[in-house]
Amino acid sequence: MRRLFLIAPVLLICYLILSVSDFTRAKELHITSVRLNAKARAYAHYMRALLLENKNNLPGAIAEYRKAVIRDPDSAQIQQRLAVTYLKMGRTEEAIKALKNYLTKQPEDLIVLKGLADLYVLSNKNKEAIEVYKRIEAICPQDVIIKFKTGLFYSRIEDFRDRKSTRLNSSHIPLSRMPSSA
User: Fold this and answer.
1) Shortest CA distance to 18 belongs to which of 7, 30, 6?
2) Dihedral sign for Cα atoms in the order 47, 48, 54, 58
3) Whole-Å CA distances, 160 to 24, 34, 144, 153, 168
4) pLDDT confidence tier of residue 13, bands split at 50, 70 and 90
5) Average pLDDT of 120-130?
6) pLDDT digits (tens, 9 = 90+) for 38-55
């Protein structure tokens, strides 16, 4: 099977050169086949990583995901699975780094941005989460859930500031909690 992967591109090149009279077109077709071959190898590494992850061999799965990322760096699915595996191992910072690495190439990928925001929330990095939610809002302004989460984290930061203040201000107490005068 491995020999087939090695021989197939050579046979394809020979076929292209013999069948296509225009050499530049043959070269373009060869480059396309090499890209497709890299994606196929990335998919093979991805499938191995999934199997290793199902067997709870997380370090092996991470190694396979990294190989898949090298072969296909534009795949959001591979980057997300890599981040999830890091998270399963308790390595939140590396999971964040993996998603940020992908976002340098595809800065408007909503699914990855939402995953990054959730990782920031898990890490108690509310300010970073708000920044990511603002980016998502700029891309997709009609997303009600994102607006709700942004407001929620703003309120968490304000609550934290209020708890740290030394004086109590009655304007921070909601009307439903105000003592009745009766």
Assistant:
1) 30
2) negative
3) 64, 54, 25, 11, 13
4) low
5) 85
6) 788 888 888 889 889 989
Query: And the tokens for 173?
Result: 């107490």
Q: Look up residue 81 and give its two tokens.
A: 């699975």
Provide the token pair at 163: 């708890």
Token reading at 152: 């929620």
Read off the amino acid at residue 25: R
Tokens of 114: 């939402």
pLDDT (0 to 100) of residue 8:
61
What are 87-94's contacts with CB under 8 Å, separation 24+? 87/119, 87/122, 88/53, 88/58, 89/58, 89/59, 89/62, 92/119, 92/122, 92/123, 93/123
CA distance 138 to 132: 10
The candidate with the shortest Cα–Cα distance to 9, out of 36, 46, 45, is: 36
More confidently predicted of 97 and 28: 97
Q: Which residues of 112-134 are buried (b: 16+ CB within 10 A; e: fewer)?
A: bbbbbbebbbeeebbebbbebbe
Spatial neighbors of 87 by CB under 8 A, at least 6 apart, are: 95, 119, 122
- For the whole model, what pTM was predicted? 0.62
Q: How far apart are CA 62 and CA 82, in angstroms?
A: 6
CB atoms within 10 A of CB 45: 20
